[in-house]
Description:
18% helix; two-stranded antiparallel ribbon; Inorganic Pyrophosphatase; 10 strands; 3 helices; alpha+beta
Amino acid sequence: MSVSAPVAVKHFRPHPWHGLEVGPEPPAVLNAYIEITPFDLMKYEVDKASGYLRVDRPQRSSAQHPSLYGFVPRTYCGDRVSRLAPGANRGDGDPLDICVLSERAIARNEIIVRARVIGGLQMVDRGEADDKIISVLDNDYVYGEARDLKDIPHVLIERLQHYFLTYRLVPGEKPQVDIAKVYGRAHAMKVVQAAMDDYVDTFAR
């Protein structure tokens, strides 16, 4: 039996934060790298050194995420993002977080989805700007035509607000997270653009 020669590997898996494109039509239509699904009771987070997904911690509360959740490649929450969030002293130093609504259940993480921006939550976590962009799965048969928050049921926004205000809440301790406001598509795109510019300032010098 003959043994074939080793195959030369010319292409490696790109780092999901630095190696993927920000999206096909930024800041309106983005790529979202999904870390957490609505079925996860663990908090997963991309390892910044290797690009692989790691277990960050179990979810402390009984809350489950209302949507797909991840980040936008080649974005960074730095000075420009923090200036758009009154009450924040700095950005959180992570890629920009994004929630993606879809009508059909998606149970897998470590996937890339095309997300259309419709709004966001202006969240400040212990003095750090930690915005959550709200988007819909592009071409989704139910939500795909949405272009702003008014185009989707308000209860979905309430669920996202409730989740982010309570998922780390410990009974008897003071909450350290505040959602100052819910904003629509126009401001969301400003936040995305600021995060793209912060990324260039930080990594593309």
